[in-house]
Amino acid sequence: MKNKIMDMSTLDKRLLKELDDYINSLDGDKQEHLILVLHKAQELFGYLPQNLQLYVARKLNLSSARVNGVVTFYSFFNEEPVGKYRISVCMGTACFVKGADKVLERVQDLLKIQKDRISEDGLFTINDVRCIGACGLAPVLTVNDKVYGKVKPNDVDDIIRYYRGLENENS
Ligand code: FES
């Protein structure tokens, strides 16, 4: 039986063609461009599922373990689909002692999902992160590149309402 997770036939052929063209356009030793290729693959597909990682591994003649090692090492690569708005709650020490766990709990309750999951409408993903270097603002929450400091659990309602509002404006 075919392993569904590793079944490359489910990948969008048009996007694969674009990825192939990109790989072919790279000069020199293609294996040295692994990170660039993974960036391109993520840009095209939105994230890097296992079968796409395997595809990249075969294309670059690398082991799938090597490719997966790079994907899991760098936090900007995602193995799961991500929402348009990535909510990250800092769980570093300074944020934790100031109640980051309660903030995370509130985000999860409001969106009705656990961390590392995507909301049903595809808009939000939640994750926890280590110190982002803004300890003076603890507890800290980010939405994509925007940083919110001294966040209280109740503030989370307004933050999420704001991003939902943006969507309504755009629809
Ligand atoms: S511990 Fe959260 S920003 Fe440093």
Kindly report the name of the CATH homologous superfamily of the largest domain. Glutaredoxin
**What small molecules does the structure contain?**
FE2/S2 (inorganic) cluster
Using the alpha-carbon principal axes, give the shape. elongated
- Listing every helix as H and every strand as E from the N terminus to the C terminus, the arrangement reads HHHHEHHEEEH
Helical run tally: 7
Could you name the CATH topology of the largest domain?
Answer: Glutaredoxin
CATH class group of the largest domain: Alpha Beta
Radius of gyration, in Å, reads: 19 Å
Through-space gap between termini: 43 Å
Query: How many β-strand stretches?
Result: 4
Strand percent estimate: 5-15%
* Overall mean confidence score, pLDDT: 92
* Main sheet record: 4 strands, mixed
CATH architecture of the largest domain: 3-Layer(aba) Sandwich
Regions with pLDDT < 50 over 5+ consecutive residues? none
Structural class of the helices, strands and pairings? Answer: alpha+beta
**Percent helix range:** 40-55%
Adjacency order of strands in the biggest sheet? 2-1-3-4
Number of domains: 2
What does this structure look like?
- The chain has a 4-stranded mixed sheet, covered by helices on one side.
- A hairpin with a 2-residue loop joins strand 3 and strand 4 (146-148).
- The protein has helices spanning 13-25, 34-45, 50-60, 64-73, 93-97, 100-111, 155-170; strands at residues 85-90, 124-129, 141-143, 146-148.
- It has 171 residues and is an alpha+beta fold.
- It has 2 domains: 4-73; 85-170, Glutaredoxin (3-Layer(aba) Sandwich).
- Helix 3 (50-60) packs across helix 4.
- It is elongated and about 50 Å long.
- The longest helix is centred in the last third of the chain and has 16 residues, at 155-170.
- The chain binds FE2/S2 (inorganic) cluster (FES).
- FE2/S2 (inorganic) cluster (FES) is lined by residues 90, 92-95, 131-135, 138, 140.
